[in-house]
Amino acid sequence: MSWNLSFISEEDFSNHVKETIRKYGEKLKSFDLKRFNKNLIDPIKLIFDKTVYHSSWEEIVSNEIFRQRDKSNNNDIGYFHQRVFQYIANCHVPQNGEEGGWDVIYTNENGIEIPEAGIVHRIYVEMKNKHNTMNSSSSSKTYIKMQNQILHDDDCACFLVEIIAQHSQNIKWETTIDRNRVGHKQIRRVSVDQFYSIVTGQRNAFYEMCMVLPFVIEKAVNELDNTIMPHDTVMEELKAMAVAMNIVPKDLSIAMAAYMLGFSTYMGFKDAQ
């Protein structure tokens, strides 16, 4: 595959993808039955899901393992979205909690055209994964932080950059603080495609990045040590429990093994062991 991203080198992008994969860390470790049931599985939900969705036990267990891993992965993907900008010209990614706690700071000596607001030379970015992940308290706190930044630096704009926005946009951010509707032309909600376009000068920069990403991830996974690939043993252990209980039919024996994950000390179940 020829490299056609001019705003980031293949080496930098590949290394960043590998580092993101490494961030998965603990979540890539294999699941055994003990880890699977660490926070107590709901066996009745498993059985409802299996039956209603016409799934096998293997599929239901695999889906539950995926769900448990996925709960923690958003922070790792946030790392990918934020820290990729350290490799893009004129962008600076502060260390966590430093320099005002901004996710990205973009500076352009030639000026940055802001709709409705004219030219500024700096953009301070707060990055969110989804448009609906901020509650009213979080929105108020973020907006006040941006107001404060503009009070101290009137040659800047502040962006709430959303990875999963409702649509492509670069609009004045309006929110409610103390029951009052507020808005400022230099405080804006911007979808990530629009932000990429601003910092790279290329309209389709985010699209082009997305087009090469699957190939880069696949190559990175292949190059990394095979030990990052998990071998989950949950289903094997459940089957072994089912065999030991010697219950007929087979499907009920696996259901009983699943019941034991949550109900092993309950009356009746305790006696069945």
In short:
By secondary structure, the chain is an alpha/beta fold. It is about 45% helix and about 20% strand. The protein has 2 domains: about 10-75 and about 225-270, no CATH class; about 90-200, no CATH class.
Structural class: alpha/beta
Q: Which regions are unreliable across 5 or more consecutive residues at pLDDT < 50? A: none
Number of helices: 11
Radius of gyration: 25 Å
* Count of beta strands: 6
The helicity comes to: 40-55%
Q: What string, H for helix and E for strand, traces the elements in order?
A: HHHHHEEEHEEEHHHHH
What summary fits the major beta sheet?
6 strands, mixed
Major beta sheet, strand line-up = 1-2-3-4-6-5
Average pLDDT score: 91
The fraction of residues assigned to DSSP E strands is 15-25%
The global form is elongated
What oligomeric state best describes the polypeptide chains here? single chain
How many domains, as an integer? 2
- How far apart, in Å, are the first and last alpha carbons? 57 Å
